[in-house]
Amino acid sequence: MLSTFISHQQKSFWRSRNKKGSIAAEIVFGLLLLYFLGIAIFIGFGMVKFLPEVFPDQDVTKSFNGFILYYFAFDFIMRIQLQELPTLSIIPYLHLKIPKRKLIGFLNVKALFSAFNLWPFFIFLPFCFIEIAGKYGAFATAMYIITILSLTVFNNFLALYIKRKSISNIAYTIVGLSIFAALAGLEYFKIISLMAASDFVFRHIAIYPYLGLIATLAAFCIFKVNSKFLSNNLYVEELSTATEKKASTDYAFLNRFGKVGELAALELKLILRHKRSRSSVFMGFLFLLYGFFFYKEAAIASNSFGQMMFGAIFMTGISIIIYGQFIYAWQSAHFDGLLVNKINFKDYIKAKFLLFTIACTMITVLASFYGFLSPKLLLLHLAAYLYNIGFGTVIVLYMGTSNYKRLDINKSASFNYQGTGATQWLLAFPYTLTPILIYLPFGLLGMPYTGLIIVALFGLIMLLMRGFWVNFLTKRLKLQRYKMAEGYRE
């Protein structure tokens, strides 16, 4: 049966209309995979030499032991962001006389064919054979390998389980990443040490090899939990009912917001289905690395938050800044339809706020990895986050009503200045300068943390006043709607 499913997947690939594009994508992916595999092999065989240089006063085996859990913590964060859920069209098979366990088995097997599951082989196994085997013997080496592979499987199915649960409730992802951010803070303040814990675990596995089976048991348990979840959600009735009952959306977590969620879901579909809007959002993930240009060691050590404020505001609010500069123009092609349809403008504005809040929250959580540089940056990000969702959203939605230029969202975003005008440039000044001006007096008086608190309180107060701003922006939109519609027709 497994071979049948694989055969169907291959036929689906070769018979698809966009076969040429898929082949090109697979070639590019294959080349990238080979490149990263080469790096992994280099790290694996070079670890014996590199670790003594990085930790000169420490035994090489202790350094290796301490590195293992660090790797898997980072691996889990990357899986949450990048690992794809294995896909299979369930409905065509569920009504057939095929045991559900075979469908689940195929999904689980397919999930193992991930690039993330290859890296540990090449990173850790060379050191195990070179150093661990000579120091602790063959049996301990085998249990090292079994433990590492068990942790790989554990991360694989835990990430898939959380992502599947997050489809209906994004809180699972947020809570999971927040836990990792908290652990990073505890590590920085030396309350706990992941390196020491990792060394403790693997040192005991070297002495008592059977302890490695605990990781195998954990991997088996999360595998069973994942399989049970799949078993409970593979019903034709549930799938068809969900299709009939859905309020507006294919995004279940938005259904709880009623009409506002419906409008937000429609705009989310618009974003993901068109080149320029999709590119503008995905660029936000690339700008997550922007902090490395602003977060210098000297600035962090001296609590110079004023120097880093722009970077924090820009990075955590990038989705608001890039997408928000054309907030109404994205819908310029059908703006006349919005005016004549039975759409409550207050709900329309609330939907914009909702999308901004969700996007900004996701980016801020993802940016929490800067906590590994310093927990101070987590406080800076929190202040920037509250400012962005409290004040930044209001500025963007207000300035957007002064933009009358039509936007073609089917065109590429690269070197495309259509729809750009003075409004976009004017937006940058109040958006980026306001938090710096609020913080500046406290920074000059040597009270950096007080300045952060004031910026955060300003954003929080604006957030608590969201009802007022919704009414204000609704009136503004009603006043400007005909000018906007006239401009979008040109």
Largest sheet: number of strands, sense, barrel closure:
none
Please tell me the overall pLDDT.
Answer: 78
**What is the helix content?**
over 70%
Low-confidence parts lasting 5 or more residues at pLDDT below 50?
236-249, 412-422
**What is the overall silhouette?**
globular
Give the strand content.
Answer: under 5%
Order of helices and strands: HHHHHHHHHHHHHHHHHHHHHHH
Indicate how many domains the architecture comprises. 2
Please give the radius of gyration in angstroms.
26 Å
State the separation between the terminal residues, measured CA to CA: 58 Å
Number of helices: 23
Sequence-ordered SSE layout with sheet pairings:
Layout: H1 2-15, H2 19-54, H3 60-82, H4 91-94, H5 100-112, H6 119-136, H7 138-168, H8 171-188, H9 194-207, H10 213-232, H11 236-245, H12 258-273, H13 275-286, H14 291-294, H15 297-301, H16 305-316, H17 318-324, H18 335-340, H19 345-366, H20 376-400, H21 422-444, H22 448-464, H23 466-489
